[in-house]
Protein backbone atom coordinates (compact mmCIF):
# COMPACT_ATOMS: atom_id res chain seq x y z
CA UNK A 1 0.00 0.00 0.00
CA UNK A 2 1.38 3.39 -0.95
CA UNK A 3 0.84 5.60 2.01
CA UNK A 4 2.02 9.10 2.76
CA UNK A 5 2.92 9.58 6.45
CA UNK A 6 -0.09 10.46 8.61
CA UNK A 7 1.35 13.75 9.83
CA UNK A 8 1.65 15.18 6.33
CA UNK A 9 -1.93 14.23 5.60
CA UNK A 10 -3.26 15.79 8.75
CA UNK A 11 -1.34 18.96 7.86
CA UNK A 12 -2.71 18.74 4.35
CA UNK A 13 -6.16 18.78 5.88
CA UNK A 14 -5.55 22.27 7.24
CA UNK A 15 -4.54 23.45 3.79
CA UNK A 16 -7.46 21.66 2.18
CA UNK A 17 -8.76 24.71 0.36
CA UNK A 18 -5.46 25.13 -1.47
CA UNK A 19 -5.07 21.47 -2.43
CA UNK A 20 -4.91 20.74 -6.15
CA UNK A 21 -7.60 18.43 -7.48
CA UNK A 22 -6.34 14.90 -6.93
CA UNK A 23 -7.62 11.69 -8.42
CA UNK A 24 -7.62 8.38 -6.59
CA UNK A 25 -8.53 4.79 -7.34
CA UNK A 26 -9.10 2.69 -4.24
CA UNK A 27 -8.80 -1.08 -4.48
CA UNK A 28 -9.90 -2.64 -1.19
CA UNK A 29 -10.88 -6.28 -0.63
CA UNK A 30 -14.53 -5.24 -0.41
CA UNK A 31 -16.72 -2.19 -0.66
CA UNK A 32 -19.86 -1.50 1.37
CA UNK A 33 -21.76 0.97 -0.82
CA UNK A 34 -24.34 1.90 1.83
CA UNK A 35 -26.66 -0.98 0.92
CA UNK A 36 -24.67 -4.13 0.18
CA UNK A 37 -21.18 -5.55 0.41
CA UNK A 38 -19.28 -6.09 -2.85
CA UNK A 39 -16.08 -8.07 -3.40
CA UNK A 40 -13.66 -6.90 -6.05
CA UNK A 41 -15.00 -3.37 -6.44
CA UNK A 42 -12.92 -0.27 -7.01
CA UNK A 43 -13.86 3.31 -6.14
CA UNK A 44 -12.72 6.41 -8.01
CA UNK A 45 -12.49 9.84 -6.38
CA UNK A 46 -11.84 13.02 -8.33
CA UNK A 47 -11.40 16.14 -6.23
CA UNK A 48 -14.10 16.13 -3.57
CA UNK A 49 -16.46 13.72 -5.33
CA UNK A 50 -16.89 10.01 -5.93
CA UNK A 51 -16.97 9.63 -9.71
CA UNK A 52 -17.15 5.86 -10.16
CA UNK A 53 -17.68 2.67 -8.15
CA UNK A 54 -18.14 -0.89 -9.33
CA UNK A 55 -16.43 -4.14 -10.38
CA UNK A 56 -12.81 -3.49 -11.34
CA UNK A 57 -13.28 -4.57 -14.96
CA UNK A 58 -16.19 -2.18 -15.51
CA UNK A 59 -14.57 0.98 -14.14
CA UNK A 60 -12.37 3.14 -16.36
CA UNK A 61 -9.92 4.86 -14.04
CA UNK A 62 -8.51 8.22 -15.14
CA UNK A 63 -4.90 7.95 -16.37
CA UNK A 64 -3.45 10.37 -13.81
CA UNK A 65 -5.13 8.58 -10.88
CA UNK A 66 -3.17 7.60 -7.81
CA UNK A 67 -3.88 3.89 -7.34
CA UNK A 68 -4.21 2.84 -3.70
CA UNK A 69 -4.21 -0.90 -3.09
CA UNK A 70 -5.97 -1.74 0.18
CA UNK A 71 -5.39 -5.45 0.84
CA UNK A 72 -7.40 -6.85 3.74
CA UNK A 73 -9.50 -3.69 4.06
CA UNK A 74 -13.19 -2.84 3.71
CA UNK A 75 -14.05 0.56 2.23
CA UNK A 76 -17.25 2.20 3.44
CA UNK A 77 -19.03 5.54 3.10
CA UNK A 78 -17.94 7.99 5.82
CA UNK A 79 -19.94 6.98 8.90
CA UNK A 80 -22.72 9.24 10.20
CA UNK A 81 -23.46 9.81 13.88
CA UNK A 82 -27.16 10.56 14.32
CA UNK A 83 -27.16 11.84 17.90
CA UNK A 84 -24.08 13.55 19.27
CA UNK A 85 -23.31 16.27 21.79
CA UNK A 86 -19.85 17.52 20.89
CA UNK A 87 -20.11 20.12 23.66
CA UNK A 88 -20.42 17.41 26.35
CA UNK A 89 -17.98 14.81 27.65
CA UNK A 90 -18.50 11.70 29.84
CA UNK A 91 -20.38 12.27 33.09
CA UNK A 92 -18.06 9.94 35.04
CA UNK A 93 -15.36 12.58 34.47
CA UNK A 94 -17.51 15.65 35.14
CA UNK A 95 -21.23 15.42 35.92
CA UNK A 96 -23.74 17.14 33.63
CA UNK A 97 -24.75 19.87 36.12
CA UNK A 98 -21.11 20.93 36.55
CA UNK A 99 -20.47 21.02 32.81
CA UNK A 100 -23.60 23.13 32.25
CA UNK A 101 -23.26 25.47 35.25
CA UNK A 102 -19.56 25.81 36.03
CA UNK A 103 -17.80 25.54 32.69
CA UNK A 104 -17.72 28.57 30.40
CA UNK A 105 -18.85 28.24 26.80
CA UNK A 106 -15.27 29.07 25.71
CA UNK A 107 -13.76 26.28 27.80
CA UNK A 108 -16.37 23.83 26.56
CA UNK A 109 -15.76 24.85 22.94
CA UNK A 110 -12.01 24.30 23.29
CA UNK A 111 -12.74 20.80 24.59
CA UNK A 112 -15.22 20.28 21.76
CA UNK A 113 -12.50 20.87 19.15
CA UNK A 114 -10.77 17.76 20.50
CA UNK A 115 -14.06 15.84 20.51
CA UNK A 116 -14.59 16.82 16.88
CA UNK A 117 -11.13 15.62 15.89
CA UNK A 118 -11.56 12.29 17.71
CA UNK A 119 -14.92 11.75 16.01
CA UNK A 120 -13.50 12.31 12.53
CA UNK A 121 -10.47 10.08 13.19
CA UNK A 122 -12.88 7.29 14.23
CA UNK A 123 -14.36 7.39 10.73
CA UNK A 124 -17.39 9.56 11.45
CA UNK A 125 -17.37 12.22 8.74
CA UNK A 126 -20.80 13.67 9.63
CA UNK A 127 -22.63 14.23 12.91
CA UNK A 128 -26.12 15.45 13.73
CA UNK A 129 -25.46 17.33 16.95
CA UNK A 130 -28.52 17.43 19.22
CA UNK A 131 -27.95 20.48 21.37
CA UNK A 132 -25.16 22.26 23.20
CA UNK A 133 -26.70 21.76 26.69
CA UNK A 134 -26.11 25.24 27.97
CA UNK A 135 -23.28 26.27 25.65
CA UNK A 136 -25.42 28.63 23.55
CA UNK A 137 -24.64 28.43 19.85
CA UNK A 138 -21.11 27.08 20.27
CA UNK A 139 -22.08 24.26 17.90
CA UNK A 140 -22.69 26.79 15.13
CA UNK A 141 -19.21 28.26 15.71
CA UNK A 142 -17.60 24.82 15.83
CA UNK A 143 -19.31 23.87 12.58
CA UNK A 144 -18.00 27.05 10.95
CA UNK A 145 -14.41 26.42 12.08
CA UNK A 146 -14.58 22.87 10.67
CA UNK A 147 -16.13 24.02 7.38
CA UNK A 148 -13.43 26.66 6.97
CA UNK A 149 -10.70 24.03 7.45
CA UNK A 150 -9.41 25.70 10.64
CA UNK A 151 -9.78 22.53 12.72
CA UNK A 152 -10.31 18.90 11.68
CA UNK A 153 -13.76 17.55 12.45
CA UNK A 154 -16.87 15.95 11.01
CA UNK A 155 -19.42 17.84 8.91
CA UNK A 156 -21.90 19.11 11.48
CA UNK A 157 -25.69 19.44 11.28
CA UNK A 158 -26.65 21.32 14.44
CA UNK A 159 -29.60 21.98 16.74
CA UNK A 160 -28.23 24.98 18.66
CA UNK A 161 -29.80 25.40 22.10
CA UNK A 162 -32.86 23.06 21.72
CA UNK A 163 -36.28 23.78 23.26
CA UNK A 164 -37.83 22.67 26.57
CA UNK A 165 -41.06 23.62 28.36
CA UNK A 166 -40.91 25.88 31.38
CA UNK A 167 -40.34 23.95 34.59
CA UNK A 168 -39.40 20.62 33.06
CA UNK A 169 -35.68 20.69 32.35
CA UNK A 170 -32.51 20.77 34.46
CA UNK A 171 -30.25 21.55 36.15
CA UNK A 172 -32.67 21.12 39.06
CA UNK A 173 -32.68 21.01 42.84
CA UNK A 174 -31.07 24.37 43.49
CA UNK A 175 -32.40 27.11 45.77
CA UNK A 176 -35.45 28.44 43.96
CA UNK A 177 -34.40 31.98 44.92
CA UNK A 178 -31.68 31.58 42.29
CA UNK A 179 -32.22 31.74 38.57
CA UNK A 180 -30.42 28.68 37.27
CA UNK A 181 -29.26 28.58 33.65
CA UNK A 182 -30.92 25.66 31.85
CA UNK A 183 -29.41 23.11 29.49
CA UNK A 184 -31.82 24.29 26.76
CA UNK A 185 -34.14 27.22 26.01
CA UNK A 186 -37.55 27.27 27.74
CA UNK A 187 -40.63 28.40 25.84
CA UNK A 188 -44.37 27.68 25.88
CA UNK A 189 -47.57 28.40 23.99
CA UNK A 190 -47.42 31.05 21.28
CA UNK A 191 -43.95 32.15 22.43
CA UNK A 192 -42.72 28.95 20.77
CA UNK A 193 -43.17 30.67 17.40
CA UNK A 194 -40.62 33.36 18.31
CA UNK A 195 -38.16 30.91 19.91
CA UNK A 196 -38.20 28.48 16.98
CA UNK A 197 -37.55 31.36 14.57
CA UNK A 198 -34.85 32.80 16.82
CA UNK A 199 -33.02 29.46 17.02
CA UNK A 200 -33.24 29.06 13.26
CA UNK A 201 -31.95 32.60 12.78
CA UNK A 202 -28.98 31.83 14.99
CA UNK A 203 -27.98 28.77 13.01
CA UNK A 204 -30.13 25.74 13.89
CA UNK A 205 -30.22 23.31 10.94
CA UNK A 206 -33.25 21.54 12.47
CA UNK A 207 -35.29 22.06 15.64
CA UNK A 208 -34.84 19.79 18.65
CA UNK A 209 -37.57 19.67 21.29
CA UNK A 210 -37.89 17.77 24.54
CA UNK A 211 -41.38 16.29 24.20
CA UNK A 212 -41.05 14.85 27.69
CA UNK A 213 -38.69 14.87 30.62
CA UNK A 214 -38.35 13.14 33.98
CA UNK A 215 -40.55 15.62 35.86
CA UNK A 216 -43.37 13.31 36.94
CA UNK A 217 -44.27 13.26 40.64
CA UNK A 218 -42.06 10.18 41.05
CA UNK A 219 -39.37 11.44 38.69
CA UNK A 220 -40.80 9.45 35.81
CA UNK A 221 -40.87 10.68 32.20
CA UNK A 222 -44.00 12.74 31.52
CA UNK A 223 -44.97 14.83 28.49
CA UNK A 224 -43.77 18.41 28.68
CA UNK A 225 -45.66 19.92 25.73
CA UNK A 226 -49.25 19.55 24.61
CA UNK A 227 -49.98 18.09 21.18
CA UNK A 228 -51.06 21.57 20.02
CA UNK A 229 -47.75 23.10 21.12
CA UNK A 230 -45.77 20.42 19.28
CA UNK A 231 -47.88 20.95 16.16
CA UNK A 232 -47.17 24.67 16.34
CA UNK A 233 -43.42 24.05 16.67
CA UNK A 234 -43.55 21.67 13.71
CA UNK A 235 -45.49 24.10 11.53
CA UNK A 236 -43.08 26.98 12.16
CA UNK A 237 -40.05 24.70 11.73
CA UNK A 238 -41.34 23.21 8.46
CA UNK A 239 -42.18 26.56 6.92
CA UNK A 240 -38.44 27.37 7.11
CA UNK A 241 -37.55 24.18 5.21
CA UNK A 242 -36.30 22.45 8.35
CA UNK A 243 -37.55 19.44 10.29
CA UNK A 244 -38.49 18.58 13.86
CA UNK A 245 -36.63 16.14 16.10
CA UNK A 246 -38.07 15.07 19.47
CA UNK A 247 -36.54 13.72 22.63
CA UNK A 248 -39.31 11.35 23.84
CA UNK A 249 -39.17 8.37 26.18
CA UNK A 250 -42.78 7.90 27.39
CA UNK A 251 -45.37 6.40 25.06
CA UNK A 252 -47.61 9.49 25.32
CA UNK A 253 -44.81 11.92 24.41
CA UNK A 254 -43.80 9.71 21.47
CA UNK A 255 -47.41 9.57 20.31
CA UNK A 256 -47.74 13.36 20.44
CA UNK A 257 -44.35 13.93 18.78
CA UNK A 258 -45.15 11.56 15.90
CA UNK A 259 -48.65 13.01 15.36
CA UNK A 260 -47.21 16.54 15.44
CA UNK A 261 -44.81 15.64 12.63
CA UNK A 262 -41.47 14.89 14.28
CA UNK A 263 -39.23 13.00 11.85
CA UNK A 264 -37.02 11.32 14.42
CA UNK A 265 -37.64 10.09 17.97
CA UNK A 266 -34.69 10.14 20.34
CA UNK A 267 -34.34 7.58 23.19
CA UNK A 268 -37.83 5.95 23.01
CA UNK A 269 -37.44 3.92 26.19
CA UNK A 270 -41.06 2.80 26.32
CA UNK A 271 -41.99 1.82 22.78
CA UNK A 272 -44.94 -0.57 22.61
CA UNK A 273 -46.58 -2.28 19.63
CA UNK A 274 -48.88 0.65 18.98
CA UNK A 275 -46.09 3.25 18.99
CA UNK A 276 -43.93 1.04 16.76
CA UNK A 277 -46.75 0.86 14.21
CA UNK A 278 -47.30 4.63 14.46
CA UNK A 279 -43.59 5.19 13.79
CA UNK A 280 -43.81 3.03 10.68
CA UNK A 281 -46.96 4.73 9.38
CA UNK A 282 -45.35 8.16 9.74
CA UNK A 283 -41.89 7.13 8.41
CA UNK A 284 -40.25 8.09 11.68
CA UNK A 285 -36.63 7.12 12.29
CA UNK A 286 -35.90 5.85 15.79
CA UNK A 287 -32.64 6.60 17.62
CA UNK A 288 -32.51 4.24 20.62
CA UNK A 289 -29.39 5.81 22.24
CA UNK A 290 -28.60 2.46 23.85
CA UNK A 291 -25.01 3.38 24.62
CA UNK A 292 -26.02 6.35 26.78
CA UNK A 293 -28.21 4.16 29.00
CA UNK A 294 -25.55 1.47 29.16
CA UNK A 295 -22.82 4.00 30.10
CA UNK A 296 -24.87 6.01 32.61
CA UNK A 297 -25.90 2.90 34.50
CA UNK A 298 -22.29 1.73 34.66
CA UNK A 299 -21.28 5.18 35.96
CA UNK A 300 -23.90 4.65 38.68
CA UNK A 301 -22.20 1.45 39.77
CA UNK A 302 -23.84 -1.28 37.67
CA UNK A 303 -21.29 -4.08 37.11
CA UNK A 304 -22.31 -5.22 33.67
CA UNK A 305 -22.31 -8.99 33.27
CA UNK A 306 -22.25 -9.52 37.06
CA UNK A 307 -25.11 -7.52 38.60
CA UNK A 308 -28.75 -7.80 37.65
CA UNK A 309 -29.68 -5.41 34.86
CA UNK A 310 -31.05 -2.09 36.15
CA UNK A 311 -34.63 -1.17 35.11
CA UNK A 312 -33.57 1.42 32.47
CA UNK A 313 -31.45 -1.23 30.73
CA UNK A 314 -34.32 -3.73 30.77
CA UNK A 315 -36.71 -1.11 29.41
CA UNK A 316 -34.35 -0.20 26.61
CA UNK A 317 -33.86 -3.83 25.60
CA UNK A 318 -37.60 -4.42 25.49
CA UNK A 319 -38.29 -1.22 23.60
CA UNK A 320 -35.56 -1.78 21.00
CA UNK A 321 -36.62 -5.41 20.48
CA UNK A 322 -40.22 -4.35 19.82
CA UNK A 323 -39.03 -1.71 17.32
CA UNK A 324 -36.70 -4.15 15.55
CA UNK A 325 -39.41 -6.83 15.32
CA UNK A 326 -41.94 -4.34 13.98
CA UNK A 327 -39.50 -3.20 11.27
CA UNK A 328 -39.17 0.40 12.47
CA UNK A 329 -36.39 2.34 10.73
CA UNK A 330 -33.55 2.53 13.23
CA UNK A 331 -30.53 4.81 12.92
CA UNK A 332 -27.20 4.98 14.69
CA UNK A 333 -27.32 7.71 17.31
CA UNK A 334 -25.70 6.92 20.62
CA UNK A 335 -26.03 10.22 22.52
CA UNK A 336 -22.23 10.28 22.32
CA UNK A 337 -20.78 12.78 24.74
CA UNK A 338 -22.34 10.80 27.58
CA UNK A 339 -19.60 8.33 26.60
CA UNK A 340 -16.33 9.32 24.87
CA UNK A 341 -16.30 10.96 21.45
CA UNK A 342 -14.59 8.61 19.03
CA UNK A 343 -16.26 5.58 20.67
CA UNK A 344 -19.35 6.04 18.48
CA UNK A 345 -19.26 2.40 17.30
CA UNK A 346 -20.22 1.39 20.85
CA UNK A 347 -23.84 2.19 19.93
CA UNK A 348 -23.78 -0.23 16.97
CA UNK A 349 -22.28 -2.95 19.16
CA UNK A 350 -25.09 -2.48 21.68
CA UNK A 351 -27.80 -2.33 18.99
CA UNK A 352 -26.64 -5.87 18.30
CA UNK A 353 -26.40 -6.88 21.93
CA UNK A 354 -29.67 -5.29 23.08
CA UNK A 355 -31.81 -5.58 19.96
CA UNK A 356 -30.37 -8.44 17.93
CA UNK A 357 -29.53 -6.21 14.95
CA UNK A 358 -26.60 -7.38 12.88
CA UNK A 359 -24.44 -7.25 9.79
CA UNK A 360 -25.66 -5.08 6.95
CA UNK A 361 -28.53 -3.61 9.01
CA UNK A 362 -26.03 -2.09 11.43
CA UNK A 363 -23.87 -0.73 8.60
CA UNK A 364 -26.96 0.76 6.91
CA UNK A 365 -27.98 2.40 10.22
CA UNK A 366 -24.63 4.20 10.24
CA UNK A 367 -24.79 5.25 6.58
CA UNK A 368 -27.89 5.27 4.33
CA UNK A 369 -30.49 5.34 7.13
CA UNK A 370 -28.80 8.31 8.79
CA UNK A 371 -28.21 10.11 5.49
CA UNK A 372 -31.96 9.93 4.79
CA UNK A 373 -32.83 11.10 8.31
CA UNK A 374 -30.57 14.11 7.75
CA UNK A 375 -32.17 14.77 4.31
CA UNK A 376 -28.69 14.29 2.83
CA UNK A 377 -29.01 11.00 0.95
CA UNK A 378 -27.96 12.70 -2.29
CA UNK A 379 -24.73 13.96 -0.72
CA UNK A 380 -23.49 11.40 1.81
CA UNK A 381 -24.04 7.90 3.21
CA UNK A 382 -23.44 5.91 0.01
CA UNK A 383 -20.61 5.13 -2.34
CA UNK A 384 -21.92 6.09 -5.76
CA UNK A 385 -21.00 8.62 -8.43
CA UNK A 386 -21.89 12.21 -7.63
CA UNK A 387 -21.74 11.92 -3.85
CA UNK A 388 -19.19 13.64 -1.64
CA UNK A 389 -15.91 11.75 -1.30
CA UNK A 390 -16.40 10.70 2.33
CA UNK A 391 -14.67 7.33 2.71
CA UNK A 392 -13.48 5.15 5.56
CA UNK A 393 -11.38 2.00 5.40
CA UNK A 394 -11.24 -0.54 8.21
CA UNK A 395 -9.31 -3.76 8.72
CA UNK A 396 -11.36 -6.92 8.28
CA UNK A 397 -15.04 -7.36 7.45
CA UNK A 398 -17.52 -5.47 9.68
CA UNK A 399 -20.42 -7.69 8.59
CA UNK A 400 -18.68 -10.53 10.45
CA UNK A 401 -18.17 -8.43 13.59
CA UNK A 402 -19.37 -4.85 13.84
CA UNK A 403 -16.43 -4.10 16.17
CA UNK A 404 -14.18 -4.24 13.09
CA UNK A 405 -15.42 -0.69 12.50
CA UNK A 406 -13.11 0.32 15.34
CA UNK A 407 -10.09 -0.70 13.25
CA UNK A 408 -10.03 2.48 11.19
CA UNK A 409 -6.93 2.97 9.05
CA UNK A 410 -8.12 5.54 6.51
CA UNK A 411 -10.45 8.54 6.67
CA UNK A 412 -11.29 10.88 3.79
CA UNK A 413 -13.79 13.75 4.01
CA UNK A 414 -14.73 15.54 0.80
CA UNK A 415 -11.60 14.28 -0.92
CA UNK A 416 -9.23 15.34 1.87
CA UNK A 417 -7.32 12.58 3.67
CA UNK A 418 -7.31 12.97 7.46
CA UNK A 419 -6.03 9.56 8.48
CA UNK A 420 -3.87 7.07 6.63
CA UNK A 421 -2.15 4.23 8.43
CA UNK A 422 -0.70 0.86 7.68
ZN1 LIG B 1 -28.92 13.73 23.60
Architecture overview:
This protein folds into two domains: 6-78 and 381-420, Urease, subunit C, domain 1; 79-373, TIM Barrel, CATH 3.20.20.140. It is globular. The longest helix has 17 residues, at 105-121. Helix 7 (251-260) links the parallel strand 14 (244-248) and strand 15. The strands form five sheets. Strands 1, 2, 3, 4, 5, 18, 19 and 20 form an eight-stranded mixed sheet that branches. A five-stranded parallel sheet has the order 11-14-15-16-17. The chain has 422 residues and is of the alpha/beta class. The chain is built from 13 helices and 20 strands. Residues 83, 85, 130, 335 line the site of zinc ion.
Helix-strand layout with pairing:
Elements: H1 6-14, E1 23-32, E2 37-39, E3 41-46, E4 49-55, E5 66-77, E6 79-84, H2 96-102, H3 105-121, E7 124-129, H4 138-147, E8 155-158, E9 163-164, E10 185-186, H5 191-201, E11 207-210, E12 212-213, E13 222-223, H6 227-239, E14 244-248, H7 251-260, E15 264-267, H8 273-281, E16 285-287, H9 290-299, H10 311-326, E17 329-330, H11 345-355, H12 359-365, H13 368-373, E18 391-395, E19 408-413, E20 416-420
Parallel strand pairs: 1-5, 6-7, 7-8, 9-10, 11-14, 14-15, 15-16, 16-17
Antiparallel strand pairs: 1-2, 1-3, 3-4, 5-18, 12-13, 18-19, 19-20
The structure holds zinc ion.
Zinc ion (ZN) is lined by residues 83, 85, 130, 335.
Amino acid sequence: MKFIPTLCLVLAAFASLAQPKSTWVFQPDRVFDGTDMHEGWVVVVEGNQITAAGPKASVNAPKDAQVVAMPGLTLLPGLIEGHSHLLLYPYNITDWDTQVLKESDSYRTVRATVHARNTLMAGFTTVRDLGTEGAGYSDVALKRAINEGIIPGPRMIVAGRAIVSTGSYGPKGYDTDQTIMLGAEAADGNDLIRVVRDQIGKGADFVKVYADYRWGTKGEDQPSFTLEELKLINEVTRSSGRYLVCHAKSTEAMRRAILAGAETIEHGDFIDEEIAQLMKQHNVTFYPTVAAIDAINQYRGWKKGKDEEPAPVKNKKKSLSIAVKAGVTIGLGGDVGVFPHGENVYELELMGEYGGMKGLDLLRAATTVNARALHMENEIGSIRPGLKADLVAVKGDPTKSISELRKVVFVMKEGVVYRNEK
